[in-house]
Write a structure and sequence with these properties.
Keywords: Membrane, Signal, Transmembrane, Transmembrane helix. It comes from Hirschia baltica (strain ATCC 49814 / DSM 5838 / IFAM 1418). Residues 1-25 form the signal peptide. This is Flagellar protein FliL. There is one protein chain. With 151 residues, the chain is of the alpha+beta class. The protein has one domain: Tetrahydropterin Synthase, Chain A (2-Layer Sandwich), CATH 3.30.479. Helix content is 52%, strand content 25%. The protein has a 3-stranded antiparallel β-sheet. Helix 4 runs antiparallel to helix 5 (118-133). The radius of gyration is 17 Å and the shape is elongated.
């Protein structure tokens, strides 16, 4: 592999990595604006205070290759209806911040083949939400965390 083809491959990988979160961020916004509620969210919590944020998928890197994909389904427990309405209005921003938090965990303290530390992951996600909504406005609730290895 020549220097230029390696550089092109690296640039293509970065462009795809940046484009993927934008595509994922648009899907929940369209769903939220149509008034549909994810039916699987009702299985997690019957509460009206629960706002689902399902479909957070991030790559787990090992060196310069993707070794696994971490899939996180979570939600926010929000008691105030005014805050829930605000969350629906800024859903793409919150989803993006959650994805950044999960990416930081998946490519930071997490090591391939280990069981994810849910306390660390939830703490990172909570801090990301607190930056948007303010401390104490919501509580992050993890529904599932699955790591798919690329074998």
């Amino acid at each position: 592999m020549t220097f230029y083809s390696a550089r092109f491959a690296l640039i293509a990988t970065i462009v795809l990595a940046l484009a993927s979160p934008m595509a994922y961020a648009l899907a929940p916004a369209a769903k939220a604006s149509s008034g549909q509620i994810d039916p699987t969210a009702k299985k997690i919590s019957g509460s009206e205070d629960y706002v689902p944020f399902f479909g957070i998928r991030v790559s787990v890197a090992s060196g310069f290759a993707v070794s696994a994909v971490m899939a996180v389904d979570a939600g926010l427990h929000i008691e105030k209806s005014k805050t829930r309405k605000h969350v629906e209005a800024i859903r793409p921003r919150i989803m993006d911040n959650l994805r950044i938090a999960v990416t930081g965990y998946a490519n930071g303290p997490y090591r391939e083949g280990m069981v994810p530390d849910l306390d660390i992951l939830e703490g990172r996600m909570q801090r990301a939400v607190d930056k948007q909504l303010g401390k104490g406005a919501s509580q992050v609730v993890l529904a599932s965390v699955i790591v798919f290895n690329q074998d």
